[in-house]
Amino acid sequence: MHILIVEHNPAQSKLTRIALQERGAEVHCATALEPALECLLKLKIDVVLLDLALPDSPGIETFYQIRGKAPGIPIIIFTEQDDQNLALEAVKHGAQDYVLKNVVGDDSLFRCLQYAIERSRVELALRKSEERLRVILENSHDAFISMDSKWRITDWNTQAEKTFGWQKEEALGQSIASIIPHHLRKQYLHGLEEYFSKNSEEILKITNESFAVHSDGHEFPAEIGIFRIMEDSDYLFCAFVRDITARKKSNEELERLIEERSEKLMQSNEELRQFAKIASHDLQEPLRAVQGFANLLAESTKGKLEKDPSDFIDYILDGTQRMQDLIRSVLTHSQINSSDFGDYSTNCNSVIEEVLSNLNTSIQETEAYLEVDKLPQVAVERSQVVQLFQNLISNALKYRGSKTPEIYLKAEKSVDKWLFSVRDNSIGIDPKYSEKIFDMFARLHGKTSYPGSGMGLAICKKIVTSHGGDIWVESELGHGSIFLFTLPSVRKLRRKKMKDQIEILLVEDTPSDIRLTQEALKRSDLKYEMIVVNDGVEAMDYLNKLKESAGKTLPDIILLDLNMPKKNGHEVLDEIKNDSVLKKIPVVLLTVSQRDEDVMEALKLKMNYYIAKPVTAQKLAVLIKSIHELQTEKSDDTIAHSNEENHIRLVLAGNPHTSPIALTQLADDSNDRVRCRVAENAQVPQTLLAKLANDPSTEVRLGVSENLNVPASILELLAQDPSEDVRLGLAGNPRIPEHILKNLVNDENIHVSSSASKTLCQISAKS
Ligand code: ADP
User: Fold this and answer.
1) ∠ CA(194), CA(137), CA(170), 5° rounding?
2) Cα 255 to Cα 176: distance, rounded to the nearest angstrom
3) pLDDT score recorded for residue 635
4) I need a surface site. Which of 33, 274, 310, 378 has the fewest CB within 10 A?
5) Residue nearest atom 4 of ligand 1, based on CA coordinates
6) Element (H, E) at 184
7) Atom 25 in ligand 1: which residue has the minimum CA distance?
8) CA neighbor of 6 nearest in space, from 115, 100, 90, 79
9) Ligand 1 pocket test target in 323, 359, 395 with most atoms within 8 Å of CB
């Protein structure tokens, strides 16, 4: 510690110096202001012990002079008892402290000096960090505002001046309201108060659609972050505000550009499609004329012409035939539209039957051998699937070379799509052309060796890619080829489909039950609109009026109370179900009973669903969703004949609130789909699951394999299931024990093993 004693009395100075030196300090002394200032300039001093009564500069001026020369060095005033006022004044202006000569002990003086140095260091560090913060705030691209608990502005950086147009002096003391647009003030301030009073969160980030106002009155979009700090039992608020006008503009501009471009693209696509369509239609007409007259010419000159002119006519006929094929292919290509990705369910087995019958002649001629596995349903329009398989199989026949063609068709499930393969023993394709062959008009052979337009694979590619799939070939010259492609499975589409808003008619006379049902619906995740009528007569009036007024839609579901005055639920149900228009609306009976017998009764009752009161959000949501899902489901081969009773059974089978007794009955249903729904039901008793795990239908066993409540013993059994689908379902089930998954990783089917590895990874990532 280096101390400078500034003391005019040499005796006092000496005494103090010795006392401090004894305590390990290095001490310098000055008896007047001038030498003191010199000392400060030349020596390293940590603290000054200053007597204010110097002969050359008496009073507070001495303090200012010393302080001015060494602003960072702490000063302790060394004063006489009766000079205390002067010492206090110096403390007010920045001296660290004062001590009384002859009163302060040597130890206390030494400690006081040590403390002064320490405090000065801390203050310096604090000042530096404040300065740094200030620099950061002043250079920030965000406006920074701090406010007291009454939202009055207490600080305002340079960027705030730029953003809001108010100078700091003008802004300080104003309310935050001055930067909020007038029409939004109430709403914003109320929102802020409410947020901070209700939330324990200390930060509120408002990133979109908020506005601030400039001093010139113009409003601008702003991104705002507000946080609060507790200080002296009151809150302070700080806000960062960023003017996002430019960002918004450029986003809007970008969006506009994208919209403009996609519109142009759509327009030019449509124009192209129209052009291809019209051109190919119109081109066909003159072509038919040329073809017709060339044929006439050939017939009328048959045997009369010399070889050359006769050959020329043959060339014309051949050319026109090829042109016709080309035009047809271009037309087909142009008509494949990606918006066709709709709710189709096409059975590929019957597609193959059709294709084989179309290609029957060449199959007979070439004596081709075909092996076709059982194929699935796909969510693609039928004629496109026919086209796809027909092009691939006819290529396999065409490019057979000198061998008897062998063609193998397979399909494997991979999560939500099917991977098909068409393998042949053809002349094969050089891998360097494996992408090019899918281009329009791309051909690898001259027309004399193999006829064709080069459009077949381009059409296949367009069909597959417009359904979100991929198509590729694996081949080598001379070693046959395998064409692989993916198509969306029907199941995925089925699960995805759900109408946006469900219209519900509630027929109920008890106000408390109406309220309960309304609340249950509110709490569910359904998007719905509900109309309430209070008795059966009113319900029928309402429905009949809807039926008669054009343009009005009928409700999607009716929730019907059984016990009502005037006309009870059974009567209403009877009328609805005997009306040719109304009968298609599913009716859910609301009953007060929870007894199994009543569930069974409801099962027997023709065409109704059942829900026991009190209606809860979960019960209602599950039931309405499953009714709706089945209602909107497009019928495929398996449910084409399912009548409404079957439909109800399906809903009950999938409903976790259906009683175990009813589920036991449904597990014996003759319809595979009903049993499958029971197998998927999370509440199904384990004894039933054991039975369903041995069901002859693959889909039912698949349902069990995907059920999250299956015990390990059943899972072990299913891991040995002959169906790859079932094992695939199991491999994707995250509840399955690790040892079974590890076995499935070695499954012979690559999809099963890769799905099992994926599930294993997910499980180990979680744990
Ligand atoms: P096209 O058969 O009319 O020439 P495609 O688009 O159907 O047109 O096929 C493009 C090219 O791909 C064919 O010219 C042929 O060289 C090759 N190709 C297609 N399928 C096979 C196959 N199964 N085996 C060998 N080559 C094939």
Assistant:
1) 70
2) 33
3) 39
4) 274
5) 454
6) none
7) 428
8) 79
9) 395
